[in-house]
Structure formats: C-alpha cells, structure tokens
Specification:
Alpha-Beta Plaits; 3 helices; alpha+beta; 39% helix
Length: 85
C-alpha cells in the first residue's frame, strides 16, 4: 500500500537519521520532511517501531498515512525545476 510519511523534528542529527531510515525502506523523498512509497502493513509497523526508537526522547512528530489507490490518483501536484521558470 502506498504511504505518505511526514515529520517535524528539530534535532538535525535525529532528522537526518530518520530520513536515512525512510530511504532504507525504499521511500522516495518528495519534500524535505516528506516521503512517499509502497509499504506492506508489516513494513509500515516495522518502520514505525524503528522511527520511534530513533526519535527516542527528542522532540518531534512523525506521521504515516496509508493512501488508497483512488486517493493517490486524485492528488494534485506542481513540479517545477529552476529551468522551468
């Protein structure tokens, strides 16, 4: 199932380790603090346990949203690179 993972973490080192873990699970960075990718329910739970452990007692918020195919198809997006302006 496709998932959107977003986070708000103030500690730089923790934030970098969280991003690395998301990429280790095959998630694609779509914003500085947002990742999108296909994860089974088992992998979602496993990733979330690891994220909780990496965050530890540091301040932060991590949210994972499973997305159905219909919702994913209905998304709107603008992708523009520097050369497009």
């Amino acid at each position: 199932m496709m998932c959107l993972l977003v986070y708000d973490i103030t500690h730089n080192g923790t934030r970098a380790r969280i991003a690395d873990l998301c990429q280790d699970y095959g998630l694609e960075r779509i914003q500085f603090s947002a990742f999108l990718g296909d994860l089974s329910r088992t992998h979602q739970e496993e990733l979330f346990r690891k994220l909780r452990k990496r965050l530890g007692r540091k301040e932060g918020k991590i949210q994972l949203f499973p997305l159905c195919e219909r919702d994913l198809r209905l998304r709107l997006e603008i992708i523009q690179s520097k050369g497009d302006a």
